[in-house]
Amino acid sequence: MEQYPMAVVTAPGRVEFKKRTLPPFGSHDVLLRVKACSICGGDLHIYKGKHPLAPLPMAIGHEISGEVIETGKAVSKVSLGDRVAVEPVITCGTCYFCIRGEYHLCENIGYQYSSGQGGFTPYFVVSENWVHLLPDFISFEEGALFEPLAVAVHACCKAQVELGHSTAIFGAGGIGLFLLQVVKAAGGSEVFIVDLLEHRLKTALSLGAHFSINVAEEDPVERIIKETHGLGVDRSFEAVGVEKTLRQSAESLKKGGICVLIGLFEEPHRVLFPVNLFVQREIQIRGCRGYCWDFQVALELVRDGKVQLKPLISHQLPLSDLRKAFEILLDAKAQANKVIIQL
Ligand SMILES: [Zn+2]
Ligand SMILES: [Zn+2]
């Protein structure tokens, strides 16, 4: 059987290409020629050996687009030559949550990469249920970004953003920059975006943020409270995964406001939080996990021109430069947003 290289993190800071044979091909599966795979914050956690749920060695890459080059006998949703984005989950379909349609909470949820199939590889086998057709005007590079966009859509729904709501987004990485656009599409008014990298804040402003706050220069809570005339924002999003920003996203809230937590904490058991805020200000903090029927919404938002994918792409590199791509992402001077590997 033929073997293909696939990127695996074998030790902190070490990416190796391991040979693999393709997984068994079922009647509802499709074979993709992978065309683009974007590097996610989660991949960076794995690369550093600090992903709390992904012990090394671990395959990487789950923001994938490609072309259908083979279909199983029972496949009806896609045809040869179709261009698709991959929803990289594996669910059991039979547990309590799957039957309720809440497949992101599946008792047996897995991801393709943690089941041995990363995206930095030329071929990928996936069920037809987990591919989504790309609009013609969307490139494969942009198509790889539907996964983080779906995360942002899910987070916005969890926050129940309403017309006129003010929002603060902590973290202007890929998720933050998509959230900004999704929140505005949902009717949000003033958007504050908070980060410490100036180039990301610039991108956020060009995508329609009203206020950018560089935490290296000013205190975000003070600024948000001042600009909202002492009230705070209706909704906040923590898309960093750090104790300090979690506290700040709660402290920036208006009374009765809701904060949605998206960031993955590398040190999850060491969080100090001013818990009396819950009672004193009747705030809520909500969790948000992955996506569930959110790729469909993400596709509609892009089709309608309400969300742009391209401005987030800062670098495009060939597969042979994958190691360099990680170096770029970890180098603040490189001014990276989303780094895409082309295959
Ligand atoms: Zn991702
Ligand atoms: Zn399940």
Please explain how this structure is put together:
27% of the residues lie in helices and 28% in strands. The chain is α/β, with parallel strands linked by helices and 343 residues long. Strands 3, 5, 6, 9, 10, 17 and 18 form a seven-stranded mixed beta sheet that branches. Helix 4 (146-159) packs across helix 5 (174-185) and helix 4 (146-159) crosses helix 10. It is globular and about 65 Å long. The model has no long low-confidence stretch (mean pLDDT 96). One zinc ion binds at residues 40, 42, 62-63, 147-148.
Computed over alpha carbons, the radius of gyration is 20 Å
**Taking all residues together, what is the mean pLDDT?**
96
Give the CATH class of the largest domain.
Alpha Beta
Helix content: 25-40%
Whole-number total of structural domains: 2
> What is the tally of beta strands?
18
Global morphology: globular
Q: What ligands can be seen in this structure?
A: zinc ion
Number of helices: 11
Order of helices and strands: EEEHEEEEHEEEHHEHEHEHEHEHEHEHE
The assigned structural class equals alpha/beta
The CATH topology of the largest domain is what?
Answer: Quinone Oxidoreductase, Chain A, domain 1
Distance between the termini: 22 Å
